[in-house]
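As a representative case, we now present a protein record of this kind.
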Amino acid sequence: MTDRISRRQVLGAGLTLAGAAAVTSVLAETALAGTGSVVVPLAGAGKPVPPGGLPWAAANQIVAETEAAMPKFADTMFDVTKFGAKGDGKTDNTAAFAKAIAACSANPGGGHVVVPSGTFVSGAIHLKSNVDFHLNSGATVKFSGDASKFPTVLTRYEGIECMNRSPMVYAFGEQNIALTGSGTLDAGGTSSWNKGSDRAYLESLISKGVTDPHKRVVPGSGHTMRSTFVEPYNCKNVLIQGVTLKNPMFWQLHPTLCTNVIVDGVTTDPSTAHSNTDGCDPESSDHVVIRNCTLGAHDDNIAIKSGRDDDGRRVNMPTQNLVVYNCLMNGNWGAITCGSEQTGGIRNVYAFQCVVKGATKFALYVKSNTKRGGFSTNINLDSFSGTFARSFAFVTMTYNGQTGSHPPVFGPFTVSNSGCSKAPLVFDVSGLSSDHVKGLTVTNCKFNGVSNATDKISNTDNVKFTNVTINGKSVTR
């Protein structure tokens, strides 16, 4: 479903999608189409959240600071067809897209690389500073089955840095970049080469003392590991807005080692064709806002990460100051997941007004072990609702049975103004006898349709329930 909003409405009503950058991007599509109107996707789980409308002062501050850092682009359009691109569904447009992006980046103040209606085949798209790559309504980019169109780049595979084939959309060390519009990105054509999950190869290199990720080269090694879909890496001031992702092979949105990221009104793919297609996985990033999205996934909807084991300790960068709100979650594991690759730590997470549908197992899923270590602290959920296939919250320090000498630090966790209409269990929260979860506070929650009303909470300190009911009966702690 879409709303048609005129240029006058955008300017006169002061519509804010993600700061000034978004308004400029909206007008870019209007100018190219020549119709005086623009299609803005409707997404999210409920009514829009006004500025400052989150229930935590710290979360409102994070959003304000992140919005203030969003890119602003010159009002200059770079139509990809002027650089030789053809939307005929068969022409390879990799070089044409690269030329348009280079010209846009070189322009004072950058601008908008605009993909008009049509089906454009391409290899990897590498964004550069001050570029908004904008897909008009009716535009589809289909990524190629030719592996040579995806050069080897520095990336992170399941929390380990390495050199692998490029994500479909990638940027490294850039700033002020955007991927916007109401078009579609389709990775289905990459299935011929975008496969494999041989993380053990990387782990064997690490055990041999190969600490330089540039020497952990996957292509040509005889081992294969999938590439993520959209991955800004070590970038600042990133906007991803409005687009739809289809047919992913692996994690769909993967901002890594980034600062100031907004993901707004994006739709990701919930299909079960491929496993591990998390919706959005912010990793080792600071100031990330995910809002108004429909996050489909065949795994976690949002999986917050910060590196794995020894390589995660080498990089040692947390994900912190993350705000999620007004999202519809449709995946089959966690709505908000911390880990398991959380060796660098996770802190200050605020998630508000999200609706869970489908076979999602948990609203909150926190997982690590004494091999992985790391921390998940100050994690907060408010106004979550839906049905849950296993429990509302699952917190474990024994994930996958792996052990080592790095006990994780968990808590405090807070859940407020939330509930469910169906779940086997509400809380399954366990620390270790030597490593307790440090706080669980639950306030103003109603959990109904619960098969087992007796929570499983152990090795957890400072547990406090206030105004909490399970199947209509008050629960206090």
